[in-house]
Write a structure and sequence with these properties.
With 304 residues, the protein is an alpha+beta fold. The protein is built from 9 helices and 14 strands. The longest helix has 19 residues.
Length: 304
């Protein structure tokens, strides 16, 4: 049965139309799991599946609803009345297929967003939130006895290795001036471990998409050193030059709007991005306060 399902899904993704369908009835026909389940992360829903027959009521955009019966594979639990994404042939409405991959991705994102929301007000030192694409992700700096080395866990922190080295170099040169209450040999006595403590990194995350998170790394490490949280509801964005200077970020409007979507109180943004934002149509209705800073030092004074 299911070896025919994948070709139909690929065909209708290319030539058909997308819609949402409501489950009228559902009958389970079997299931299984992949060997990947032994090492896949907990949020990977695609390692197990259920084969079933569904009666659906399809709601095509701008057209009359119609009913269809499909055999499909699902990676999430479904009940009567639940919604699923489908593709259908507009010339033959008997040809309908459930997009089980889109359904799994939607559920994974919902679970991830719920976990991130649960921890949005975590105020521990060393934790900062930064916009990456359409998401606002947490980045945590943790101190362990050592010799000032940089370590990391997870995809987000791994992609930030370059900016993190720049951040460490900047703080070695400037911490005594910016944070005189912090021991001068703090970085010489501690290793810094970077991690994304909550949620999962988006699959499409790459070096380019995290280019604007360099300032967040500086704030995270400085916050850890000063034993002071950056503040409730604070989001930080800003790029670093190889010489340790603050630089504008690409797609600043996308980052500011991402902060506003998660109801951040404020977002720290490089002053170089001011011209890219001041004429944006949403500036007057934004609930998140945009705080422009002209330097790394100014950003640290605003957060730690």
């Amino acid at each position: 049965m299911l070896f025919k399902h994948r070709p139909l899904l690929e065909e209708l993704r290319e030539k058909g139309r997308h819609a949402t369908a409501e489950i009228i009835s559902l009958q389970t026909e079997g299931g299984g799991n992949s060997m990947r389940a032994n090492w896949a992360p907990d949020d990977d829903l695609t390692t197990t599946w259920t084969d079933c027959q569904m009666d659906l009521r399809v709601f095509p955009p701008g057209e009359s609803p119609f009913e269809a019966t499909v055999h499909t594979r699902l990676h999430t639990f479904k009940w009567k009345g639940d919604k699923v994404p489908v593709w259908y042939d507009p010339d033959n409405r008997h040809r309908v297929v459930v997009d089980y991959e889109e359904d799994a991705a939607t559920m994974t994102r919902a679970v991830n967003d719920a976990e991130l929301s649960l921890h949005r007000n975590d105020l521990r030192p060393g934790l900062v939130w930064t916009p990456v694409g359409h998401d606002v992700l947490p980045l945590a700096a943790i101190a362990k006895p050592g010799k000032g080395r940089l370590k990391h866990t997870g995809k987000l922190a791994a992609l930030l290795t370059g900016p993190a080295q720049t951040a460490l170099a900047y703080l070695r040169d400037n911490a005594s001036e910016l944070m005189p209450h912090v021991s001068a040999d703090w970085l010489a006595r501690n290793d810094v471990h970077l991690d994304q403590p909550y949620g999962s990194a988006p699959a499409e995350l790459d070096t380019e998409s995290v280019a604007g998170a360099g300032l967040a790394v500086v704030v995270a490490i400085a916050s850890l050193m000063a034993a002071q949280s950056p503040g409730r509801g604070t989001v930080v964005t800003g790029a670093l030059t190889p010489g340790g200077e603050l630089a504008p970020v690409p797609h600043v409007a996308e980052k500011i709007l991402a902060a506003d979507r998660v109801q951040a109180r404020r977002i720290i943004v490089p002053d170089g991005n001011r011209p890219h934002w001041q004429d944006h149509p949403t500036t007057k209705v934004l609930k998140t306060k945009v705080v422009f800073v002209g330097s790394i030092g100014e950003a640290l004074r605003a957060t730690v």
